[in-house]
UniProtKB/TrEMBL annotation:
<keyword id="KW-0234">DNA repair</keyword>
<protein>
    <submittedName>
        <fullName>DNA-3-methyladenine glycosylase 2 family protein</fullName>
    </submittedName>
</protein>
<dbReference type="InterPro" id="IPR051912">
    <property type="entry name" value="Alkylbase_DNA_Glycosylase/TA"/>
</dbReference>
<keyword id="KW-0227">DNA damage</keyword>
<dbReference type="InterPro" id="IPR011257">
    <property type="entry name" value="DNA_glycosylase"/>
</dbReference>
Length: 313
């Protein structure tokens, strides 16, 4: 078998159905899919000994996916109406559709070292555009821990239990129709202001057009037609939902400083970040992921962390 090849079989006492995905040696499953998780308490993700679990929704309905490394690959079991759909997408979720051709890690020693250290990390493609839109909008203009708390509360209250023998507390996020009709007090109890909740509702009205089969530029174009969604949000969505290797979230309050510190030892702004990343055009998101894995938390402190400041158009 070659990486990404699958063999199928009945679930027996495990999933409703399953596949075994052939993977290259050294694939880091937890870190590859871990960047899709919105904080350690994300109710749509869970870990148990030897397994990573994810609750999601596809066209036919809700699904629970369990990923377990096995010799030569990863066994993916799935339960629920959407089981077959999520199993079809398992290679993409594991980063096996990620194409690093042309990536020149050796252009900078820090990037080269991060690439060697984290050689098992791929760019995952979640395929779940809608939930990624919601989480990205919730993260606008607030610190990450606050956005993650809002996501936890809203999914816990308005999502549904994950199908199958899922870990306790694993939930499927609501579909667009539910987000569109949430009463204002539910948003406020979750700490979400009117600007962000209105953006989610506007996006929900056109969620049918935000498809995972689009290429990143087209999805970004459609997203930007929604008032309240700008370049930062579109980059977050295309990078996580579509595995876009070149997405750069311009407008983040901290990311330029991380890039500047890692590559030059000094702070830079958005323009400086884009200049530093230019040699890796086509793979800039890949560089950002590697730098975050290698340098997160290692920058010198420059004062208290404030909310993100990002363009809204």
């Amino acid at each position: 078998m070659h990486p990404g090849d699958v063999t199928t079989g009945p679930g027996l006492a495990t999933g409703d159905t399953h596949v075994v995905v052939a993977c290259p040696p050294g694939l880091d499953v937890r870190r590859t899919v871990g960047r899709l998780r919105r904080g350690p308490g994300d109710p749509t993700w869970a870990t148990t000994p030897g397994a990573v679990w994810h609750a999601t929704r596809r066209g036919p309905g809700a699904a629970t996916l369990r990923l377990c490394p096995v010799p030569g690959g990863v066994r993916a079991d799935a339960w629920g109406p959407g089981a077959s759909a999520v199993l079809t997408e398992a290679p993409a979720l594991l980063g096996l559709l990620d194409d690093p051709t042309g990536f020149a890690a050796g252009l900078h020693p820090v990037v080269a070292r991060a690439h060697r250290t984290h050689a098992g990390v791929r760019l995952a493609r979640s395929g779940d555009v809608w939930s990624t839109v919601v989480t990205a909008v919730l993260e606008q203009r607030v610190v990450g821990v606050d956005a993650q708390a809002s996501w936890r509360r809203l999914v816990a209250r308005h999502g549904s239990p994950a199908p199958g023998p899922a870990p306790a507390g694993l939930r499927v996020a609501p579909p667009p129709a539910v987000w569109r009709t949430l009463p204002v007090w539910e948003w406020r109890r979750a700490g979400v202001d009117a600007q962000r909740s209105d953006t989610v509702r506007r996006a929900a009205a056109v969620a049918h057009a935000m498809r995972a089969d689009l290429d990143p530029p087209e999805l970004a174009r459609r997203l930007r037609t929604v008032p309240g969604i700008g370049p930062w949000t579109t980059a977050e969505v295309t990078s996580r939902a579509l595995g876009d290797p070149d997405a750069v979230p311009v407008g983040d309050a901290h990311l330029p400083h991380l890039v500047g510190w890692a590559l030059t030892g000094r702070r830079v702004d958005d323009a400086g970040m884009l200049h530093l990343l230019a040699p890796w055009q086509g793979h800039r998101q890949r560089v950002l992921v590697l730098l975050q894995l290698a340098h997160l938390g290692r920058m010198p402190a420059y004062g208290p962390r404030g909310p993100r400041a990002l363009p809204m158009r």
